[in-house]
Amino acid sequence: MALRSGGVRITLAMFGLLLVIAMILGVIRTQMRQRDARFAEQENRLVKEIFHDVLHGTLDSTEATSDNSDKQSRITKQLRMTAKSPYLVSHSSNLWNVSLFPSPLSALSVGASNTWPNLYQIHGVSLSKTVQRSDRVRPIASVYGPIDVTFVVMAIAPLIVIGLTFNASSRDRESALQNLIVAQTPSLGKLMAVRCFVRAALVIGLVACVVNGSLLIAFASQFDLNVIGNLAIWNSVAMLYLLIWAALSLFVNSFAKTSTANGAALLLLWLILVLLIPRFVSNAVQDAVPTLPENELVEREKRSFDRATRNIDRVLQQFQSEHPEIELRLDDEQQMTLARYLLAHSAAGKEAAENVSAHYSAQSLRAKYLSFCDWVSPAISFRNQSDQCSGNSERSFIAFSARAGDVQAQVLEVFLQPSITNQECNMETIAALPGFQESGIPRSPSFLNSVTSIASMLVWLTILVSLGTWRFRAKSSSIERTQLPKSGGGENA
Amino acid sequence: MLEAKQLTKRYGERLALDALDLQIAPGEVYCLVGANGAGKTTTISLFLNFISPTSGAAFVNDICIAEQPALAKRHLAYIPETVSLYGQLSGVENLDYFSTLAGHRLSKDDKLSLLERAGLHGRDANRRASEYSKGMRQKVGIAIALAKNASAILMDEPTSGLDPQASNELSLLVKQLGTQQTTVLMATHDLYRAKEVASHIGIMRQGRLVETVKPGDVSHAELEMIALRSMQLQ
C-alpha cells in the first residue's frame, strides 16, 4: 500500500540512486586498488628479472616493458654503472613492494583503508617508508571522503525506513481508521509489526538488489567461498540493522502519539544511535588508548637518525662487536662514510620499528575495545561487521603492516651487509627476495566478533519487537486513551 | 448471542454506563436509543473491547470479551458511524484489505458480490475511496462487516448522514441479517428506522437502560413520546 504513494516511490528511487552512486564509487576504488596491487606485483617480478639477469650475466638482454620502463632503466643504469656496488640498488627508492590485494567486497566499505594503505613500497635502506604510511596519494578517497555503501546503509537507509514507518499506526488513528482495524484484527501488535517490517523489507530488498547485483557485475570472477561467506554475513547484518529500525518505529508507534511526535522521536533516536553514540564511543576509545599520529612517528624516526648520526662511533663499535665476521676497511674514507650513513639509518630504523610496533599494538587494542561497544548501538555493530566483511577492518591492516615490517627487515638483511662492506651481493640471496604471503592476514570477520555483533543486533530486535507488540496488545484491548475521533472522514475526509 | 452482565464503565467521577444487563438472542435486532452521552456508544465500545469495563462483563456466544478478546472478535463485526477507508485504494481493495485482516481471503467475485449486496454497484466498487461520498464509504463498511460472516454485528449510528435511499437500503439489509440469525446491536438516534428494523428498542439515559420497548407494541408517535420523555428527564 505504501508503494502507491508517489512520494514514497520518489524517495525510494532517490535512495536507490544514492546506493548505485556509492556502489560505483566503491567499485572504482576497489578496481584502482586492485590495479595498484597488480602493478606492484608486476614491479616485483621485474626487479627479480633484473637480478636474475645480473646473476646469469645476461643483463643486456633484459628488455624494458612499457609500464615499468622508467624503473627498469633506472635500476639497469645503476647496475651497469657499478654492478659490484649493490648499495646503489639499495638506494633505489621503492625497491620492493608489499601489497595487499583488495577483496572484491572492498567496494562495500572504505573502513580502515582510508587511513591504512594496502601497499608498502619498501626501501632498501631504512624503515622510514613503512612508517610514512600516508605518503601514497589516493585521489578518489580525497574526493568522496567517508561516503561508501556502508555509510549509506548505516546512516541514510534508517531515515528511509523511518520515513516509511513512522506513521504506521498513528496515521490510521489520525484518519479514524484504527477502530475499524482493531475490530477486524485479533492482534494489532502483530499487524503493526508486519506493516513496519514489510515496509522495511522494501528498503532491504533495494539494498540487497543494488549491492549484490553490482558486486556480481563487477567482480563475479573473483568470487570464491570466502567472499560469498563474507557477503552472506554482510547481507545478514544489513538486514538485521534495518529491521531494528523498523522495530524501533514499531516501538515508538506503540506510544500512540501523533505522527509528528513519532517522526521527531525517531529522528532523535537516529541522531543518537547513528551519529552521537558512535562518535562518543570512538572518542572515548581514542582517549582510553592514545596513539601517536603518523607525522609524530616520522619525526621520531628523524630524531632517531639524528641521534644515531651524533653517536655514530658508538653505533659503529656496536656493529663491529655484533658482526665480527665483517671486515671494515677503516682507512677507506668513502666506505666508512657510507657505512656510517647506513648504520645510522639502520639504528634509526630499529627504533622506528619499535615505535611502529607499539603503535600497531595500541591500534589493535583500540579496535578490540571498539568491538566491545557493539551493544551500545546497532550502528557500531553494522559498521564493525561491514568493515570486517569488506576486508578493510583495522585488524586486517594491522596484521598486514606487521607482515610488511617483517618483509622490510628481511630486505634490509639482504642489502645491509654487502652495502656497508662495498662487496658484491650474493645474487642468489637477492634473487630470493622475500615475497609477501597473504595467508594468515584476517580478511573475514572474526568468529567471536561476528557472533557478538549479530547477538547484539538480535537482542535489540527482540526487545524492541517484544516491547512494541506487547504495548500494542495491551492497547488494542483498551484503546480508550488513544482518543478515537467518534467521526471523521479518514484519509478521504 | 450478545449479553451484558452488570456492565459498568466509569471515567473518573463520571459514570458512562451503569450496571447494564442485556441479552440479545440470535436473529434479534436490538436498537439502543437515547440522547447524546446516554451510553450507547460506550456499550458498543465495551462489546468491541475498544475500552475495558470498570466492572461487569460483556459476552458474545458465551465468550467473555474482556478475557478472550481475540476469540471474541471472530464473532463480532462492526460498522462505525463514519466509515473511514484508505483513500488511495478502491472499494474492492479496501474490502480485500480489511477482510484479510480479519483472516478471510475472498475471491474477486465474492468481493464484488458483497459490495453489491451492501449497495455499491458496478464501476463504483473500483473507484478510489478518496472519491467516495459518505454513503458509499458506509456501504463499503457494511460489506466489510458482511465479509466477516460474524454471528453478531454492532452498528454505531450507521444511518447518520445517509440520504433516505441509503438509509432505506441499510434498513432492508439489517432486516435481512435478522432473518439469517445474525444478532444486531445498533445505536441510533433515528427512531423511525429503529421502529422499522428492531425487534427490541432499549432506551438509555445517563448510562442506564431505563426502558425496553417492543416496536410492534407501540406506534411511531408513542415511541417518540417515550424517547422524548426519557431525554427530558435528564
Short description:
Chain A is built from 18 helices and two strands. With 493 residues, chain A is an all-alpha fold. Chain B is globular, with a radius of gyration of 17 Å.
Class computed from helices, strands and strand pairing of chain A = mainly alpha
Oligomer: heterodimer
Strand order, biggest sheet of chain A? Answer: 1-2
Major sheet characteristics of chain B = 6 strands, mixed
CATH homologous superfamily title of the largest domain in chain B: P-loop containing nucleotide triphosphate hydrolases
Average pLDDT taken over every residue of chain A: 78
SSE blueprint and pairings:
The complex is a heterodimer of chains A (493) and B (234).
Chain A: H1 6-55, H2 69-81, H3 87-91, E1 96-99, E2 119-122, H4 128-131, H5 139-144, H6 149-165, H7 170-174, H8 178-184, H9 188-219, H10 225-253, H11 259-288, H12 294-310, H13 312-322, H14 333-372, H15 378-389, H16 394-421, H17 427-431, H18 447-476
Antiparallel strand pairs in A: 1-2
Helix pairs in contact in A: 1-2, 1-6, 1-9, 6-9, 6-10, 6-11, 6-15, 9-10, 9-18, 10-11, 10-15, 10-18, 12-14, 13-14, 14-16, 15-18
Chain B: E1 2-11, E2 14-24, E3 29-34, H1 40-47, E4 55-60, E5 63-64, H2 69-73, E6 76-79, H3 91-101, H4 108-118, H5 134-147, E7 152-156, H6 164-179, E8 183-187, H7 191-197, E9 200-205, E10 208-213, H8 220-232
Parallel strand pairs in B: 3-8, 3-9, 6-7, 7-8
Antiparallel strand pairs in B: 1-2, 1-4, 4-5, 9-10
